[in-house]
Amino acid sequence: MKRDPRTIILEPVLTEKSMKAHEKSNEVAFVVARDANKIEVKRAVEELFKVKVLDVRTMSVTGKTKRLGRFEGKTAAWKKAIVKLGEGDTIEFFEHA
Predict the structure, then answer these.
(1) What pTM value is reported for the model?
(2) In the beta sheet, which residues pair with residue 80?
(3) CATH number at residue 79
(4) pLDDT digit string (tens) for 36-77?
(5) Which among 59, 93, 91 is positioned nearest to 77, based on CA atoms?
(6) Residues 94, 12: Cα–Cα separation, whole Å
(7) Which of 22, 67, 86, 96 is surrounded by the most beta carbons within 10 Å?
(8) For residues 38 and 88, what is the distance between their CA atoms, to the nearest angstrom?
(9) Does any domain span residue 92?
(10) Distance (Å, whole) CA 80 – CA 82
């Protein structure tokens, strides 16, 4: 059963490091569903943004321990996907950030 692309691609990662990677090698980073695989991420990006995806790298990011006074908690773990776009392809959202 095919999943909706909007449930796979959750949000873009807009950090200084991801913006440099976008400028240098046409790569964009997204927060993706924890159970999504590379094939699903590739299809979702191609369908949502109408671009050609050459490569997908995924990584699981573990939650960090945070403290507020004497109370300690943990941020949620999440999954990140770095997507290499084809030559000449661009995602408008990353151009204006």
Answers:
(1) 0.87
(2) 31, 59
(3) 3.30.70.330
(4) 999 999 999 999 999 999 999 999 999 999 999 999 999 999
(5) 59
(6) 9
(7) 22
(8) 22
(9) no
(10) 7
- 67 belongs to a structural domain: yes
Enumerate the β-bridge partners of residue 67.
72
3-32 confidence digits (pLDDT tens): 999 999 999 999 999 999 999 999 999 999
* Residue 50 belongs to domain spanning: 5-87
To the nearest 10°, report the CA torsion of 36, 47, 25, 82. -10
Domains of the chain: total: 1
Percent of the chain with pLDDT over 90: 86
Note whether residue 93 is domain-resident: no
Distance CA 84, CA 86 (A): 7
- On whether the CB atoms of residues 30 and 45 are closer than 8 A, the answer is yes
- CA–CA dist 39, 94 (Å, integer): 22
In a domain, 95, yes or no: no
